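sorry for the late reply, my laptop died twice this morning and i had to redo everyting from scratch. anyway the thing you sent over, i finally got around to it. pasting the sequence first so we're on the same page, its 279 residues, then the predicted structure underneath. double check i copied it right bc i was rushing
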Amino acid sequence: MGLAGLATLLGASCASHEDKPDGPRPDSGRKVAYELTEDVRYVPEDWPEPLGADLYLPASTGLRPAVLVVHGGGWTRRSRSDMNGISRQLAKRGFVVLNVTYRFAPAYRHPAQLEDLREALAWLAANADEHRIDVTRIGAFGYSAGAHLAALVAVTDPEPGVAAVVAGGTPVDLRKWPDSPLVNTLIGAHRDAALEAWTDASPIAHVTPDDPPFFLYHGGMDTLVEPEQATLMQAALQEVGVPVELYLAPLQGHVSMFVFGGSAVRAGIDFLARELALD
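ok and here's the structure:
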């Protein structure tokens, strides 16, 4: 995004959790078998593109929580295969997982990507009986542009709602980068000419007291999406009383946090297990 760095913000510790609940976390050693069905179409027949997703169904009984997984790539590229590893980890813990593809800019501008994720949530609800999904326990997990979209869909009151969010390397206030080629591509106009659209596409602008709990993780040496974005979102959520955890890794950059951030991912999955009442 052509962003300037603010890595000194994080201090010296290896990782810092804030607003962490009392008591032990769920058993992260749990392993559940699962079935994978690839390229499940989750959008209606008349949708602009025939978008697909990979569906992971754990071999567990009763109603299960589900997680919508969203990949990054600056809203313009990459694929859901980037999130295969995280999706497998979630499925092994017992979550139903829908790892989705969405429409890319510049062919499709905001809010097209948000609309795609709303359809993915609607698909989970429509197929809840068949796959034994508890629609009151749906989470969202994304990184980078995928984290932006996961956060955005969660705070814009989708139906069904999102009950917990894990977001890594998240651009939460797009207005901070008026000259970013990627954000300009997503919106289709410069910030000064389309401030309303830039605001609408910024998750932080939609924060309200009824938002779901958030787990944010971020690299302290991230010069692409500055760590200030995580602390701004943390502060906004705290101000309205929404539970939020913040995992800061000072020695990681944007890409390295995704590639080598396994401890943050595991902590995020534990967060989802707790917030979505995983048995």
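Residues 1-27 have pLDDT under 50 and may be disordered.
thats about all i looked at so far, will dig more tmrw
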